[in-house]
């Protein structure tokens, strides 16, 4: 090196030589070295990552083969306050849509599997100087319309697979709202290019100003006045609304001394949970002579459906008659609904009630992100309180298996947790921003004892638990768990045991991609070991249910298919060749699997439930007589047609339409409002209340599509060229079995967030499941084409609906939210509508019963009681009367 410097100085001037020397020394001093574990720790602590969605409009950089060339542009801004002089490290991160291409010389981004991507420095990477920022611009499929699309917990790893979460990408919990925040996501600033899908997207961001105008439609002053009297309108409301009720305008029943229950011919254990809820809310249960007698009686009645009851509140006693113990239970819950927290009276009157639908359900996805046992027990309490009776518990999917199966411990040893193990022999890959901590809140499972506790709690509240372990698609957790089992026994030399429950064909070279971009998430339906696995699981689950005295009578198989799976599977080629069921091509295998599993379940006395898309390919004659079809077609895309087809062929249809029943979608069109939005940008509690399940196509008259444009719903008879029915109206006097709300959990990582998404929408769900609205439009069995010009939902019906909503929302605000708070439910506190006119702040809310606060950017929160003079931008938020919880703050711009 010294000789080179001498030669250099002989050929150049002294100053040039010195400059060249300094340059060479600088390069030597910044030479990059392979990342040690200590270097990974430094990167995790010092690297600041910012995620910035830039533009949703398609450009020349978009892959024209994807969704008509739609893609969005985003930046990852990487900076550090400490120099980084190491290489041979990677950053794994979750991204909900595949990244197509990037603009960077120093980095690459590649798709790994599912939502998992990896950033790697190239040979042109020069390290990070102190406070240097490097920007990676990338283009990804479709659109990104919410700041909550970004996933937390970017993982930096070296060649030793030493992994740490980058601190700057961790989620935090907002102290005021109790909800998760992602500080590394940059807020939207361009409404047109960041907040909208296309030029035709009419969605308006719900600002405080727009919300103020919307809230003005409902004036709660009359309800507040009425509520000052114990016999007011709100005091007489029951949620869900009964079929018939009539109350005195002058008389009340004083319950300050408590209630005494006379069970007569009623099994006390069947109604104890409802009585316990009364006590939680503040109604004493006592044997005092001064207590009010509550007389319970079962009355034989062969005409009224299960759950029907009559409730008579007299001046000195309460009488409850019902056709079964679920009816007694629901009548007691109606007492709880009439009660206002901290009061000592009930209105005197009569109630006659029966459910509109037999199936009144909620799905909770605990597979993608786990919800612990206590969360489910709390939810069961609230389901019982509002007369919901089906819990569809989604226990298995690509990202997790959540139920212990004693004979197959690998399912929970491997499949119940995500960490950083590229071999996936100890855990699954960290999809959905799970990070590296196997004990985090996103991970976990129900032991047999846990699950049986859930089953017993459900039985006590007259709720049927319908478990779901998805198959054949959405099965990656099971497949990887059984692969780990296979490897374990193969290593021990026990090939027979290794292959006993194998779910994939090791010789299969098929390349495919599921809806969530997995290339290995589909059970191979041509292996007998797959059916042996399903039989083993079902026998075990049935036994667990039986021991808990909650019989497994219905099971949801999912039935999701993966296009293109099994194409190159030797096992499938052999299966088709040797099978005598008439299968001649690979495209028939998915429906054959569903038919075979459905009949397997029937042989176990278990009824089959499944999603409509998978069921739509099955042969009706090969299916059992009883099939539950969850219809999840989007109403804006004629989703009613498949629902009608299944009803007409006498399957039990449970409506699960995403436009209104997916509670993982946002409440409002606001990029800060959490939730996915592929089917709707906004599903608030009022929209759920507006649902008419008995007439699906009529919603085209008053709802909009996912870009807030009008749509048309065609419910007329359609035939193909051969004269076969493509779609048709309902056959007269055929009906759906019921409705189900869905809480999928891809970006629901905490219990608080899950309850926020469920409540108060769950109360509107209960209202529509139990009570047929007086303003609903009768179904036209002759068929009809509905649009915003068809006028079947008349102005008079709209006015009646809005009046009923006003009563319902006032009841939530003045009675039910206080109960939810008393029972520690983290319900959504409404945003405040506000505007500044002539330097005066005006504010309002969609519900009464909350307080409003305001502040300047640097000021303290002050109570808002009436319009107030302001001279700058203002922030507004709501808080509960107790002052224990706050809603999200919105900014109000000073003109």
TrEMBL record:
Residues 45-210 form the Chitobiase/beta-hexosaminidases N-terminal domain. SMART domains: CHB_HEX. Gene3D superfamilies: 2.60.40.290, Chitobiase/beta-hexosaminidase domain 2-like, Glycosidases, Immunoglobulins. This is beta-N-acetylhexosaminidase. Belongs to the glycosyl hydrolase 20 family. PROSITE patterns: PROKAR_LIPOPROTEIN. Its EC number is 3.2.1.52. Keywords: Glycosidase, Hydrolase, Signal. Residues 1-18 form the signal peptide.
